[in-house]
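From the pipeline queue, job 12 of 40. The input is one protein chain; the requested action is below.

Action: predict structure.
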Amino acid sequence: MLRTLAKIWAFIKKDFITQISYKVSFFLQIVGIFFSTVTFFFLARLLDPSASKYLADYGGDYFSFVLIGFAFSSYLQVSLQGFSKIVRESQMIGVLESLLVTQTELPLLIISSAMYNFIFTSLRVFVYLLIGIVFGIGMSGANYFGALVFLLLTIISFSSLGIFSAGFIVIFKKGDPFGWALTSLSWLLGGVYYPVKILPPVLQKIANFLPITHALEGMRMTLLQGKPLTQIFTSLSWLVLFTVIMFPASLIFFNFSVKKAKRDGSLVQY
């Protein structure tokens, strides 16, 4: 156990040292959060009051709604781009094959490689919420335990999608149709910028099969409305289902992708 934690810490430390060396980029990412939040704040003031009927379940405030959606959708973005980016960079600098032949198990290798990205994304989400509170988001009655449960399920289910995406990168190199399609559908149907209920019934049914839909619903209900998990059991069940099925399936697919690339002799090609 201690050896496993030491390996994870080594990956986190390596990525932190790399990122902190680009001080301007690191600083600009934090500053960018402030400008995004302010943009959403003034955008919310322009909306027609009649739109509030679609936001009644979330407290009727569009600023709170969109800020939660945009902040927590960052986990999907870092999942779909982070894992594939790690694989891509490892291919380009010629270390992917070396990493895959070490004594480190494949699942641990994949998870450790992306750990820093999730930690930094969590920091960004915290800053979003902190600035949001300054601008008037009310979370005094939030169900923080419920939000934590949804957060863990969100990270695991989104990670599964990212591992699938990384597997496609191993096979197709530059082409990643899975990541592109899922990103497009998630931003369109997942309820990031507007409630899913305003979509046509057919699209609402499709949205139910996207993890982001239930992840954002759960985070909004727990943080903005303080709902207990029993009252948002449907979203919770969907996320659990996604996690139980997709996480092991994604590891199996990635393992298959690596073996196929080795057979084809294309593992180090890019």
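Job complete. The mean pLDDT is 83.
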